[in-house]
Recover the amino acids of this structure.
């Protein structure tokens, strides 16, 4: 596997992003590396994924759409309704490969799915998804203290709590939208990911209970 030049990537991100987004990026990269240490994943991959995950976040909506269209990346209806939130991950994954030379499909998928998650995520995908949510600069989310502790003890537990909280946050947003804005901000992938992990947690609990009663 080709080794990434992290120093070079950092300089490129400093140029590409706003100061605030760059700060967030560094925080995600180091948080992802710390999670990789605890959970036995590759720290360089975690740093690379963290460094590049929002590489398309500061592009205009017009540019995001044109990157997707030019490169045959399909844009769903929901993505078209929320391009800034949903397309930066898809376009970012493309740029990570095309512009920044990343070849590792696990890193590219981690970037691709860092906003919505997806069913059956790899360890690196979970690490990036969680690091993006818990990095030290985040302040707002509910249960942040609990999720931060959990992330270093139980990766799947933290993942599920984030999925649950994100879904209820997004659903509460829909509730506040006025009737004129008849858009559903929820990407089906966000819901699918939540449902998948809800089932897999229920299965895990069931087999744990069965083992205890033996
Ligand atoms: O790019 P960041 O702000 O660092 O983080 P992100 O890529 O996870 O995007 C953040 C927002 O995306 C967060 O407020 C939750 C939101 N999000 C997750 N799933 C969906 C979503 N937003 C919409 N509109 N629809 C979704 O399904
Ligand atoms: Fe993002
Ligand atoms: Fe981010």
């Amino acid at each position: 596997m080709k080794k990434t030049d992290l120093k070079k990537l950092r300089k490129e991100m400093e140029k590409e992003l706003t100061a605030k987004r760059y700060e967030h990026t560094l925080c995600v990269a180091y948080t992802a590396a710390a999670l990789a240490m605890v959970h036995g994943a590759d720290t360089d991959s975690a740093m690379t994924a963290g460094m590049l995950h929002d590489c398309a976040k500061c592009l205009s909506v017009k540019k995001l759409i044109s990157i997707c269209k030019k490169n045959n990346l399909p844009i769903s209806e929901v993505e078209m309704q929320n391009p800034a939130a949903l397309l930066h991950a898809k376009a970012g994954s493309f740029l990570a490969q095309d512009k920044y030379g990343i070849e590792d499909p696990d890193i590219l998928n981690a970037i691709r799915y860092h906003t919505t998650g997806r069913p059956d995520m790899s360890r690196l995908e979970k690490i990036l998804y969680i690091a993006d949510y818990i990095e030290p600069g985040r302040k707002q989310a509910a249960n942040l203290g609990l999720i931060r502790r959990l992330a270093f003890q139980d990766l799947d537990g933290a993942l599920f709590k984030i999925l649950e909280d994100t879904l209820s946050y997004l659903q509460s947003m829909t509730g506040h939208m006025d009737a004129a804005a008849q858009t559903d901000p929820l990407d089906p992938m966000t819901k699918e990911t939540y449902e998948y992990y809800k089932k897999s947690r229920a299965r895990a609990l069931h087999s744990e209970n069965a083992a205890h009663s033996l």
About this structure: The mean pLDDT is 93. The CA atoms of residues 41 and 123 lie 7 Å apart. Residues 188-212 form the longest helix (25 residues).
